[in-house]
Amino acid sequence: MNSPPDSHRQIARSAGLTGVATLTSRLLGLARDQVLAALFGAGNEMDAFVVAFRVPNLVRDLFAEGAMSAAFVPTFTRQLTLQGRDEAWRLGNNLLNILLVTTAGLVIAGMWLARPIVVALAHDFAGVPGKLELTIALTRIMLPFLTMAAVAAAIMGMLNSLHHYFVPSLAPAMFNIATIACAFLLVPLMPLAGWPRITAIAMAALAGGALQIVVQWPPLVREGFHYRPVLDWRDRTVREVLTLMGPGTIGLAAAQVNLFVNTLLATSQGTGAVSWLGYAFRLMYLPIGLFGVSIGTAVLPAVSRHAAVEDVDRIRATVTHGMALMIVLSVPATLGLMALADPVVGVLFERGRFTAADTAATATAVRFYAIGLIGYASVRIVSPVFYAIRRNSIPVLISVASIVLNVVLTVILVRVMGFGGLALGTSLAALANAALSILVLQRKLKGIDNRHLVSTFWRTCTAAALMALAARGIARAMMAAAPGPSLLMQLLRLFASIGGAVTVLTIAARVLRIREFDDVRIMMVRRLGVHTSASI
What predicted TM-score, i.e. pTM, was given to this entire model? Predict the structure, then answer.
């Protein structure tokens, strides 16, 4: 396919910057989960926190990585491209104020209705003394995070449209830093005040939400933004964003709504099930954040600019290149997680109150969630494109179908397989969502380079399968040669397995001539500051 090399270079560069920042945030997220696992394990307090945070966090995920980007970035980019910065800033101010007003109203209503909301979500918690009441209290504390998430997402959208990717992608790290800090500083103090220890983590959520806004504000001001108390609901561009956000929320909601359904069904699976699924999904979400969200964040502004001038050829080229990059990153991540789920979970979490039984259960959920990784990542790239090309109803219909499929599958599979069936059902629904989205998008664009994508997929699958076999073989050999339960021995075995697997993957990708693998390698080398004469 004829595709502008500059466009490919820009996408790779933007995805690389986003990926580095996201990697930092996700690694801090893993550190946060390690701290929480050690302090609270998979017990009643952690179950209560996971359910309580699910509502505001659902909004955060939809706004920060979903509907806000899909609706706001194309409109803001079009204003920048066709009308100039003054009109774009006016749109940004207006939307910020509307979000402040509407989300504040939702927060107040949520606090008032916290009890019936939590009872509807986790009525089985009533069977454990104090668990339901704790969940309600934590929900009320964390609901203001909803407003902070909406504002932070709007700022992120403006910065992405202005080619700022690093700081917006790094902003979520502030949430993780706040959680870790409060875990060490406030958790020991909570019993002295007569509060449950987990209350400190709920307070940390609010501190993290505020810091996400604070860290993004300076680069936005440097671009020329000045806050104005503008509130005009009749503004045409604001109506366009709000009109898109309704379908956008539904169109990109499948993964998060399906996770919400999983949490709801997991409350009936006994103490620990909610936490196991939560730890597993966040671990699986690391590659989604690095690959799907990072590439999608880079692709959307590029597609929006091409759509503004109706350049369909460059839209096709941009989507094809983004999908190819996603394939060479997501497929190895999928098989790698499935091959090494137990040692990875053990090294990361098995200490303090997180037991070997928790490790085995969480690893089971990781393997089932990993099956759908390529589906999650694909939707993060493909769904926003529909909004950029103004085909708003398509992702809505596909998302609704995916949610219905997920409910059917999880209700059936949880009865057969327990909590693991929830993760498997969600993964199968994600794959179906992605397959249908890609099929419809290529029809709307009158074709993308399917031959290249299919070839890249099968060659990557071959290389990744060899990698997974190597990982399993090395892990077993290392267990025989260097047994022992100590953390040092676990780390030694895991690093040897990963190192050998990456070596096999690199050799196989070179032999199979997977072009995008070289693109990714060069991109990573450049991010590390190593000069190379190769061109992406």
Answer: 0.68
